[in-house]
């Protein structure tokens, strides 16, 4: 089937995102979300005028990152559009870069790899009083959070979008493996600290490994909230693709 022009595709993604997330509690939400997932799965790097590369040395530090001129950030962000109900943009990661484990309070999200390979670890928060809690490792780092470590998977441009909801896979860590990577990101609603949607970072607390193989998933774990890592910041770059 012939593809529509590239501008039409990303505009249709934005239009469907607006329809989907204006009524996330409505009866048609599931159907609209599926349609958005189908459209997002069609997007390729060339649709957004992107070629495989890492963040640019010209990226301007954003979000409180160190404003060191000429220093290539580990991650940069290309803003596409934002409304009250959703935001959309592209994250570019240099080879080996990591977006640390973080949450999306009360938010839905969709992530589509445009180039490269990402390893994405997904977790759910668990109520503090849930049964069969694992032993708490000695941390000494402050309050701890119980979580279900659900999955750790590799995603490529051939993979379907990675989805998160307010209750499922809401915490995740994203690593670029075997080269630079980029992904199209939709968050609904956008981060907004004034409305309780601030980003929090976490560290996984693990006891000594029981063997050479990593423990099987899913499994319950403990997390501790941490400040943003000193070696992680996000620069800003112009979005080169079709206007939305």
Describe the structure.
- With 244 residues, this protein is mainly β.
- It has a domain at 45-50 and 73-128 and 142-236: Jelly Rolls (Sandwich), CATH 2.60.120.10.
- The protein contains two helices and eleven strands.
- It has helices at 6-21, 29-42; strands at 60-62, 75-82, 87-93, 98-102, 108-125, 144-155, 162-164, 171-188, 201-205, 219-226, 234-237.
- Strands 1, 2, 3, 4, 5, 6, 7, 8, 9, 10 and 11 form an eleven-stranded mixed β-sheet that branches.
- Strand 2 (75-82) and strand 3 (87-93) form a beta hairpin.
- Helix 1 runs antiparallel to helix 2.
- The radius of gyration is 18 Å and the shape is globular.
- The two termini are 24 Å apart.
Task: Report a brief summary of the structure.
GO terms for molecular function: metal ion binding; oxidoreductase activity, acting on single donors with incorporation of molecular oxygen, incorporation of two atoms of oxygen. The protein has helices spanning 6-21, 29-42, and strands spanning 60-62, 75-82, 87-93, 98-102, 108-125, 144-155, 162-164, 171-188, 201-205, 219-226, 234-237.
Q: Which labels suit this protein?
A:
oxidoreductase; eleven-stranded mixed sheet; AEDO dioxygenase; iron; 244 residues; disordered N terminus; globular; 11 strands; Jelly Rolls; mainly beta
């Amino acid at each position: 089937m012939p593809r529509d022009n590239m501008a039409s595709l990303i505009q249709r993604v934005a239009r469907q995102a607006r329809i989907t997330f204006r009524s996330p509690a409505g009866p048609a939400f599931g159907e609209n979300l599926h349609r958005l997932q189908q459209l997002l799965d069609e997007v390729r790097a060339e649709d957004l005028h992107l070629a495989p590369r890492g963040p640019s040395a010209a990226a301007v530090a954003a979000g409180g990152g160190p404003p060191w001129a000429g220093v290539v950030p580990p991650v940069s962000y290309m803003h596409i559009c934002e409304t009250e109900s959703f935001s959309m943009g592209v994250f570019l990661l240099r080879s080996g870069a990591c977006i640390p484990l973080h949450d999306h309070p009360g938010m839905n999200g969709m992530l589509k790899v445009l180039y490269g390979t990402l390893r994405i670890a997904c977790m759910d928060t668990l109520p503090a009083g849930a049964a069969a809690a694992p032993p708490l490792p000695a941390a000494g780092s402050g309050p701890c959070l119980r979580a279900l470590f659900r999955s750790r998977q590799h995603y490529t441009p051939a993979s379907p979008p990675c989805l998160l909801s307010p209750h499922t896979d809401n915490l995740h860590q994203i690593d670029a493996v075997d080269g630079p990577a980029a992904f199209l990101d939709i968050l609904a609603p956008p981060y907004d600290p004034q409305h309780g949607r601030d980003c929090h970072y976490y560290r996984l607390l693990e006891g000594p490994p029981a063997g050479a193989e990593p423990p099987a998933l899913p499994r319950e774990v403990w997390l501790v909230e941490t400040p943003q890592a000193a070696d992680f910041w996000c620069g800003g770059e112009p979005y080169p693709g079709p206007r939305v």
